[in-house]
Design a protein that fits this description.
With 510 residues, the protein is of the alpha/beta class.
Length: 510
């Protein structure tokens, strides 16, 4: 169910992964700042606290503010800023973060009180659940990493004030994420906010003497700088999802996926691929590295969120370069700081479909996860089978559309709940962009990929029809789960990477 209008905005329904009906017009240019008087000299942007910064920016009721999520579940800045906004009596704010995590659960009170009116960004955990039950007065909008940048550059999402958590900065606004007590690696998610927001505030807990080098966010985009006691906890960047799985079934999935890649036409010297940070994806990376080592093959690059496993392959020389949009562990931060060919990747370069060339289009292989898939190869990463909105999209849809071989690596069922469905609860990524689904019960190739079916027709790998696998899973689990009880109200829109709406999330009835 895709509405034609929501909260006063006209919507265009999804028309195909490569139709791109909104790919026209001009960029939404950022405002020209007022020149600093030449005679004053020694310009200093440092303010005493967050409240002074909010007042200086001219933030008012109904405006939009943004944040990045490089500190993931260890971020302190979002709560700190919204608390200050509430104390100043400002209301009806639209929150446009790159992602929210369980650490941001205190925002629920600001949703209840009316300080926050709308959220446009990924909601992982408690806030997503709160919104699922219809507790936000407006409709959330969920975008991919590339889709968020597209929305900002195309003018669909205008940011009045961007608050950028910076582990290291100077008093002029130059900032990076590789020095200080709260290191997080790149600041790539915040690059577009710094460039396009009307006002930009750097929030740091490690102020260094000008100039702060290296520069991820330049002073040319920054209005004010605030020093606080602590911007976050770097240890919370790492989570349980960034460790290799120990499950025998899931290790078998990873082994099958790596074998499929090795037999595929895309396994070659100079290939490029994207790894995930989930337990199965990390195991695939390890197996793939073993094959490359044995066969004397080198990858040109790894793209995406970077982990220790990617860094190990890079430092061994099996992978020549790393494109890094975010890091998932401290080893990756060290590499990002120290290694020349470990490169920071702004999100518009990573995956913006309206850019003149994004990295996902140069990937040979991408392996991704899912909460559900269906027999038409559609993928859900936003909701669970109970309808609750608990996850963001990340770069899922972007990678699926760009990579030559997009693989979903998932268990066939979790806790006796089938993952392979007749129809997914929510369509996040369209089936036409998914090439292969790998489970412990076999490998399913999308019928649209006749070339792959032909290539693997004599393979010893367990290539199976997805409907046969689904039937087997249903037999084990006792059939499909009971559909969730949903109301008519739409609580969130799933925006495809080109700006069209591919699906909606309806209110869960208690």
């Amino acid at each position: 169910m895709v509405p034609t209008e929501m909260d006063g905005r006209k919507l265009t329904a999804y028309q195909g992964a490569f139709a791109n009906p909104l790919g026209k017009g001009n960029r939404a240019a950022p405002p020209i700042p007022r020149s600093f008087p030449a005679h004053a000299g020694g310009e200093n942007k440092l303010l005493k606290d967050i409240k002074e910064a909010i007042l200086k920016t001219g933030l008012k009721d109904g405006m939009t503010i943004s944040f990045h999520h490089h500190l993931r579940n260890g971020d302190y800045v979002v709560n700190m800023v919204v608390d200050a906004i509430a104390e100043l009596g400002i209301r009806d704010i639209t929150l446009a973060p790159t992602a929210l995590f369980p650490c941001h659960a205190p925002l629920i009170e600001h949703l209840k009180s009316g300080v926050i009116r709308n959220i446009q960004g990924s909601m992982n955990g408690p806030i997503g659940e709160f919104v699922s039950y219809g507790n936000m007065p407006t409709c959330a909008i969920l975008r991919t990493h590339g889709g968020r940048v597209r929305a900002i550059e195309d003018g669909d999402l205008h940011i009045d004030v961007a608050f950028i958590a910076a582990p290291c900065a100077d008093d002029y606004g130059n900032a990076n994420g590789v020095y200080g007590p709260s290191v997080c690696g790149p600041l790539a998610y915040g690059a577009i906010d710094a460039q396009y927001a009307d006002k930009v505030v750097i929030v740091t807990d490690y102020l260094v003497r000008f100039p702060c080098l290296p520069i991820s966010i330049p002073s040319t985009h920054v209005d004010y700088v605030v020093k606080v006691d602590k911007i976050g906890d770097s240890n919370q960047i790492v989570s349980g999802t960034t460790k290799i799985t120990r499950s025998p079934a899931r290790l078998f999935i990873a082994e099958l996926a790596a074998k499929f890649i090795k037999e595929s036409p895309y396994y070659r010297d100079g290939m490029g691929f994207q790894t995930g940070a989930g337990g199965i994806s990390l195991a695939v990376t390890k197996h793939l590295g073993d094959y490359m080592r044995q066969d004397g093959i080198k990858a040109a690059f790894i793209n995406g969120g970077i982990t220790k496993f990617a860094v190990d392959l890079f430092r061994e020389g099996i992978v020549e370069k790393l494109f890094d949009g975010q890091v998932f562990d401290t080893d990756s931060i060290d590499s990002f700081r120290e290694d020349l060919w470990h490169h920071e990747t702004p999100m518009t370069m990573y995956a913006n479909v309206h850019s003149k060339g994004c990295l996902v289009n140069r990937q040979d292989i991408g392996f991704l996860g899912a909460t559900e898939v269906d027999v038409d190869y559609n993928v859900n990463v936003n909701t669970h089978s109970d309808g609750l909105l608990l996850h963001g999209i990340g770069g899922h849809t972007d990678v699926a559309a760009g990579a030559q071989l997009c693989m979903i690596v998932i268990p066939a069922y979790r806790k006796r709940i089938p993952i392979i469905r007749d129809a997914v609860t929510t369509v996040t990524t369209p089936g036409e962009t998914i090439d292969v689904i790998v489970t412990e019960m076999g490998i399913c190739i999308n019928p649209l990929r006749k070339d792959l079916l032909e290539h693997f027709k004599n393979s010893a790998l367990p290539i199976r029809d997805i409907r046969d696998v689904k039937k087997q899973v249903d037999g084990i689990c006792g059939g499909q789960p009971t559909p969730p009880k949903l109301g008519d109200r739409v609580v969130a829109l799933i925006e495809y990477r080109d700006g069209t709406i591919i699906d909606s999330v309806r209110q869960v009835l208690k």
